[in-house]
Amino acid sequence: MNQDKMLVDTVFIQAILNRRDQYHRQAIRYLPRVQAAAEVWITEAIMLEVGAALKAYNRSGAAMFLRKCYTTPNMRMRSIDTPLMLRALDLYEARPDKSWSLTDCISFIVMAEHDIREAITADVHIALIHLLGLSGDTDRATRIRAASLISPIRLSVVGALG
């Protein structure tokens, strides 16, 4: 096991579970690194998106994967509680200039809470996090790497969360 700490996003999980997904091959190639990571974070918001996205294609595979997220030793689950939801809603409302989903906002907050600097996704909202100015504290910029399934190149983006 390595010391990597990462968040897996809906796009990555869908790509793993759906052989017809455009990112399936890239996700499968990246999977051993995720499996070897010290901590792999997921939120219940991401789990809801996965269940909705795969309901017709691979419902049983999605259900099995989501159940394993609660019992796999290196997986860390972040439940959606009222304080997290309210913080995410604040962020969602405060940034009408962004096309972030509420799930994206939850992911950003969880990444900041747990000092997660890598997101495994093809979602441009996370892969190109672009968080400067969220907290107004641009001096405390945090380096965030997003392992993009779109390209084998990991992106480094400067972001700040307070």
Protein architecture, described:
The chain starts with a strand and ends with a strand. Residues 124-162 have low confidence and may be disordered. The protein contains 7 helices and 6 strands, in the order βααβααβααβαββ. Strands 3-2-1-4-5-6 form a 6-stranded mixed sheet. The protein has one domain: Rossmann fold. The radius of gyration is 15 Å and the shape is globular. The protein has 162 residues and is an alpha/beta fold. Helix 1 crosses helix 3.
**Strand proportion:** 15-25%
- The named CATH superfamily: 5'-nuclease
Tell me, rounded to a whole number, the average pLDDT. Answer: 76
The domain tally reads 1
Class computed from helices, strands and strand pairing: alpha/beta
Helix content: 40-55%
CATH domain fold name: Rossmann fold
Order of helices and strands: EHHEHHEHHEHEE
Tell me the Rg in angstroms.
Answer: 15 Å
- Biggest sheet statistics: 6 strands, mixed
Number of helices: 7
* Overall strand count: 6
